[in-house]
Amino acid sequence: MTELLKVHGSQNSFFLLDQANLAVPLTDPEMQKLARTLTDRETGLLGGADGLLVTDANHPQMRVINADGSEASMCGNGLRTVARYLSEKTGKDQFKVKTMYANLEVRKADNLAENVPAFGVEISPVSFKKESLPFDNLDTDHLLNTELPQLVPGWRFTALSVPNPHLVVFIKEEELDSPKLGELGQYLNGDNPYFPDGVNVNYVVVKGDSQIFVKTFERGVGFTNACGTGMSASSLVFALLNPDLGHFEKEISVYNPGGMVKTILHKNDDGAYWIELVGNATFTHEIEIPEEQLHSAELDFDQIKTRDTYEQESYLNFVEGLKK
Ligand SMILES: N[C@@H](CCC[C@H](N)C(=O)O)C(=O)O
């Protein structure tokens, strides 16, 4: 039997698999197939999820397989849960985790509430260069609060990678339910002349000093409860465009449909930006699957056992408390 976990950060949910638990590690096509099968919102396990996180306790690392089987270079909410998993395995409270483009620092943080463990993770490298997303056919090398009437007239867009690609647009609170949000997300993540690899689209509402709300249409997934890299990218753009409200080296509260995280913005002496993302790392279920099932083309759900950890109840109490 192999143990998987179902986890979430701000209710951006994942299955977490440790290759070190397997006699034969999963191949990339097996991971992609498993991600698509487990995460399906209608036919997947435990109501599906937004992706599959693959780690290896022997070589601290994280790979992120989106729900559609594509691979993302980073996942901020996912990294917090991988950090907790590896921390509990090794007894270490601070260490680095290898991701596609960078070795990122992670640390155990104070619990957000009783039974709501939290971790802080480094989000970097940050780039505003066109090639880092990439984007094309927009007659510019940088999008920084730029009008793009060919996308949505009247909206201003900022593009940055952290290092996965993000587009940030500030909207009014009353626009949050507009169909334009999903339409644009879908358009830019389908066949389009501007973002050939797709892009995560973050819709941001400024709530006040050091406070924003972010709703994200995620590449490879669709709307999610939260996107860690998206909230980090949005925090940086918030501070760059509104220096009176968003500050470096000071916590920013980032509310999202799944809860709330904190971000802290940093600028190194060489001018490079990086962000610390602090938030919950919740394990909702322990799952037992025979290893041969993970390698097989079809999963037999009758052979899978799941156990509720009861952490979700505590997390929901924490979210309820945010409303008071
Ligand atoms: N939810 C994630 C980001 C996941 C990756 C994204 N869908 C992509 O393809 O870049 C997060 O918490 O950062």
UniProtKB/TrEMBL annotation:
Positions annotated to bind substrate: 12, 66, 76-77, 164, 200, 218-219, 228-229
Pathway noted in the entry: Amino-acid biosynthesis; L-lysine biosynthesis via DAP pathway; DL-2,6-diaminopimelate from LL-2,6-diaminopimelate: step 1/1
Subcellular location(s) per record: Cytoplasm
Active site: 75, 227
Coiled-coil segments on the chain, per record: none
UniProt-listed Enzyme Commission number(s): 5.1.1.7
Keyword Cytoplasm: yes
A GO BP annotation: lysine biosynthetic process via diaminopimelate
Gene Ontology cellular component terms for the protein in this record: cytosol
Keyword flag Amino-acid biosynthesis: yes
SUPFAM superfamilies referenced in this protein's UniProt entry, alphabetically: Diaminopimelate epimerase-like
Alphabetized Gene3D superfamilies for the sequence: Diaminopimelate Epimerase, Chain A, domain 1 (3.10.310.10)
Transmembrane segments: none
Domain of life: Bacteria
Marked site (Could be important to modulate the pK values of the two catalytic cysteine residues) residue numbers: 166, 218
InterPro entries given in the database record: DAP_epimerase_AS, DAP_epimerase_DapF
Catalytic activity: (2S,6S)-2,6-diaminopimelate = meso-2,6-diaminopimelate
Main location: cytoplasm
Example GO molecular function: diaminopimelate epimerase activity
Subunit and interaction comment: Homodimer.
Family to which this protein belongs: Belongs to the diaminopimelate epimerase family.
Functional summary from the UniProt entry: Catalyzes the stereoinversion of LL-2,6-diaminopimelate (L,L-DAP) to meso-diaminopimelate (meso-DAP), a precursor of L-lysine and an essential component of the bacterial peptidoglycan.
Name the UniProt record assigns to this protein: Diaminopimelate epimerase
Protein's organism: Lactobacillus equicursoris DSM 19284 = JCM 14600 = CIP 110162
Lineage: Bacteria, Bacillati, Bacillota, Bacilli, Lactobacillales
